[in-house]
Amino acid sequence: MIIDTLFDCTKDSTGPDPDGSSPTLCRYHQHLWSKPLPSGKRFDLLVSRDTRYYLSHRSELGNFYLTSDCIIHTYRDWKRTRDTMEALSQQERDELWSVGWVIGSCVIFPGKRINGKHTINETRGCHNQILDRFDLTLECIRLHYTGQENPLDDTLQTYGDFFKLFETFQGYVDHFLLQDLVTSDYSEVKFYLPFDGFQSSPLPRYVT
User: Fold this and answer.
1) Residue 37 burial by Cβ neighbours in a 10 Å radius (0-12, 13-18, 19+)
2) Residue 46: beta bridge partners?
3) Which of 59, 89, 112 represents a domain boundary (last residue)?
4) Is the pTM above the cut of 0.85?
């Protein structure tokens, strides 16, 4: 399969959210992430018959139901960032929206609730210390692999079987081709904004 890294998945989306309604995005996820894990066992994905969960994997490794998640936040409809976004031109806002829906701007997470708890997508979107920032989410995942507390700790532990598939933070980063977001030795995340240990608001406050 040829992956068009510039294809805007809003173009073939049958609904308002390409994460769940773009056939191209679904095929790209299936093709890219169906591959061997660090253990050598394959993590093959099938298009799920249950449209709530998008993709699935069933094997001796376990049963996993996965959904797509955009990792670029445009803040287009957020009241708290209205002044910041209005500092951008309409063309800049449109370009930001479009780049947010190419395959390189999306990842998959477990999408089935466990014991009624929020999924990773849901928790990272509403947690006041994360607010959909993927760099902060990735830092939580890094801390999870090292056994350290983090704002998403409870949720990541709930889906611990998923993260065990990749064995280490490096294994997770390499599987999902996230190397550009970490340092060369995988010891640190490259943050979008200055990082102070989840103390400051994660929202952008001005345009540079």
Assistant:
1) middle
2) 56
3) 112
4) yes
